[in-house]
Amino acid sequence: MSFSAYPEYSESSVPWLGRVPSHWSVHRLKHSVATCKNGIWGDDPQGDDNDIACVRVADFNREKLVAAPENPTIRNVDASDLRFRRLQKGDLLLEKSGGGEKQPVGCVVLYEGPPGATCANFIARIALASEMSPSFWRYVHAAIYSANLNKRSIKQTSGIQNIDQQAYLDERVAFPPPDEQKQIADFLDHETARIDALIEEQQRLIELLAEKRQSVLSRAVTQGINANPAMTETGLC
Fold first, then answer.
1. How many domains does the chain have?
2. What is the mean pLDDT of residues 195-214?
3. Quick check: 9 pLDDT over 90?
4. Which of 33, 42, 36, 106 is nearest to 72 (CA)?
């Protein structure tokens, strides 16, 4: 896939970014954020007005970079503890704790579930600053993760990886103008959907080939490789 060049580029002075379009600015990631608040696990559901849907890391779709659980976990959380913790469509969810050697902590997904839910204590809710495109910024975080920049902010304690939120949000990234953020996000939404469809098609082909492989194997060991063999009953069911 080729991309059209911009008229002019400037050095970002950020090694992982390199040169960026001259009309883009470079700031710390925290400038894209209005608030970043750790989630809460609460108590077992009580069947009262404080029962609330709670998004867990297990609800993250890491391939599609979204969280929209159909059957979320229900927890009981006092209304006074939900300040800045009620999720809205378009929020980003940062995995703060967990991970492992093969899947480091620090995945970020876009929340696409109904408003009013909350997130678990291993997650931070990121509400974006004004004019920031939610879909664009999930891809920025995905690029950070792909470049392993999240590892610089990981602190290991008792076998669980933890992200130092302040250090993570101090990473420097490129900021296109708001209208261009949306254009880039729309492009990536379309292209990733197309690639996902191709992957699904290939997976189905792999399944069909696996069925064909088993069929060939079974026929060869039960009937041989003669195209027209003389058959006889084995007497076995």
1. 1
2. 91
3. yes
4. 42
- The whole domain housing 89 covers 9-176
Distance in angstroms (rounded) separating the CA atoms of residues 154 and 160: 10
Span 110-164, pLDDT tens digits: 999 999 999 999 999 999 999 999 999 999 999 999 999 999 999 986 678 999 9
State the Cα–Cα distance between residues 83 and 96, nearest whole angstrom.
19
Closest CA to 20 of 185, 175, 186: 175
Whether residue 77 is contained in a domain is answered as yes
DSSP string, 128-156: EPTT--HHHHHHHHHHHHHTTGGGGGEEE
Q: What is the CATH number of the domain that holds 70?
A: 3.90.220.20
**pTM of the predicted structure, to 2 decimals:** 0.84
Any domain includes 38? yes
* Orientation of helix 178-223 relative to helix 134-146, angle to 10°: 60
**CA torsion, ordered 138, 142, 144, 148, to nearest 10 deg:** 150
